[in-house]
User: Fold this.
Amino acid sequence: MLEPKKIKYRKQHRNRGAFYGKATRGTTLAFGSFGLKTQTAGELTARQIEAARRAMTHRVQRGGKIWIRVFPHTPVTHKAAEVPMGSGKGSVEYYSTILKPGVMLFEIDGLPADAAMEALTLASHKLPMKTKIVTRLHA
Assistant:
């Protein structure tokens, strides 16, 4: 699974105020011909990214190339059940990233259109937010 190799601080605030507004960067296709783009805001965990990647890779077999355009940098902590208040912040459980509407999640290339669409559809079923498939317009 995706996880930062090294971080400056082990625990962070989750910055849940970042759910508002639309994305300004990372919104267009940069590498592939087909992409999966978010339509709603949400938090994406490393496990969810890995599940979507595995679904796409399984569908395309050994054809095509897949790019993952997001990375989970933010550590998310949890305290154990029934622990009294105080005694500090909980331990890091997983890593996540906050996404705004319009962020490109995955890109795919080197496949026929129907195969690429099917692979991206399978990936979208693994994600907790609404997504849409976008294609590069060949002029």
Summary: The domain at 1-15+32-76+88-139 is CATH 3.90.1170.10 (Aldehyde Oxidoreductase; domain 3). Residues 40 and 101 are 5 Å apart (CA to CA). The first strand starts at residue 34 and ends at 38. Residues 46-60 form the longest helix (15 residues).
